[in-house]
Amino acid sequence: MALSTSTMALALLSSLSLLLPSALGGVICEDLPQDVCAFAVSSMSKRCVLESMPQSGKKTVYQCKTSDVEVNNLSNWIETDGCVHACGVDRKTVGISSDSLMEPRVTQQICASACYMNCPNIVDLYSNLAAGEGVFLPDLCEAQRVNPRRAMVELLSSGADVAEAPAPSSDFA
Description:
- The protein is mainly alpha-helical.
- It has helices spanning about 1-25, 35, 80-85, 105-110, 115, 120-130, 135-145, 150-155, and strands spanning about 45-55, 60-70.
- A hairpin with a 7-residue loop joins strand 1 (about 45-55) and strand 2 (about 60-70).
């Protein structure tokens, strides 16, 4: 009898430990609805990502998942509608990809001061995506201001070294 009581207590404690971060307001990607998933950061400082799951003969299902992409100095973050709008990004974005940097409209909005100076989470994401392509986001933004049509082509063909591109200095808290 004592064994089953302690087993039940252990099971209850384990269950509560899984629910505790959510109860305390921590962001758990898998618990987020689709409309706030993209650009969110979990309580473990991992980016949340919207994934599509095709169903045979049925409508595609979308689910929020925790990615392997870590974010420095930020956790428990759900991006504001204001920043989503200012940066020209879409909450229905599936996955994390640098492909959108090839769209002049997206790059222009990310580089606009309304986004670049006020939305450090999105700027950090796109800085790292650009760095993965060998591009320093501030250089891309400068090229965008000078000649938007040729900015990405010139920077991608420049052979720039891959560097960690810092976001503008700002406290997330």
